[in-house]
């Protein structure tokens, strides 16, 4: 996990026999902007040498605060450090906890039916209505098919949604399904100890029994078994860290998101911009009455690792996880 203080960009061009190659690379440093610029120039020279040697590689790196090109660190404002844990302000203004070794996992609720389910439901509705029209009303085959197609278009999506809601209710709702999945996982892995939290759009898990390397095989297996959001799992691997949002999303407070003045990526010069400071002050006041997640229960009787529990204390405090507040 690398989250630098300073960022810069270098640009190199090479012309040869009517051919031009332009390479852009970012550089970063915790020491100074000059050190970040020197790093950018070194990376640009290395990339240019590889390109001239015939290697195919990206000519420029995508400007992204988080989960950018593989190997590019997290580019967000550092708000606080607590040992190896780093609190950053993300692209839209919320605070995020980044840890190199304490297991966090997000499980998002699947609100929308998949394309395959919608197609199957649409076909079944169309066939059922067409047959009913043909048998009950003795309509011609053509008219029955036309009515069946119209019913499928109008009712197919709603039918699969109603079916999913009925199945979900029988299983205890989406939250109930996640609880059962977590309980099953811990039963199969008795050394684990997992805290479960409710988030506005799903659930969050925090492991207390030991620390992890985000790229180790057991993390990948746990993510798969627990049904962790694939995007979150990919970000953990790319950035070699675990991450949890610990303050509300601004639009859930009725606020606009924080906008960087240019390129939507953090630069240390942004820190004292009046508009940014004003937004952060307002956001801090509006966030006080909300929680980012709510603690529900602990699964498993594994031992508690001191380092993981320290991160848990910080996470729960910043999230207001044990206070009865609305989620945002």
What is the total tally of β strands?
Answer: 10
What distance separates the N and C termini?
27 Å
Computed structural class: alpha+beta
Radius of gyration, whole Å: 25 Å
How would you portray this structure in words?
It is a single chain. This protein is of the alpha+beta class and 328 residues long. Mean pLDDT is 87; it is low at 163-172. The chain folds into 3 domains: 6-61, no CATH class; 80-109 and 173-319, no CATH class; 115-170, no CATH class. The protein is 41% helix and 20% strand. Helix 2 (115-136) crosses helix 3 (141-170). It has helices spanning 33-52, 115-136, 141-170, 173-188, 217-226, 230-239, 274-287, 306-319, and strands spanning 6-16, 19-29, 77-82, 85-89, 95-99, 104-108, 194-199, 202-207, 242-245, 294-299. The strands form 3 sheets. The protein has a 4-stranded antiparallel beta sheet with strand order 3-4-5-9, sandwiched between helices. Strands 6-8-7-10 form a 4-stranded antiparallel beta sheet, with helices on both faces. The protein is globular, with a radius of gyration of 25 Å.
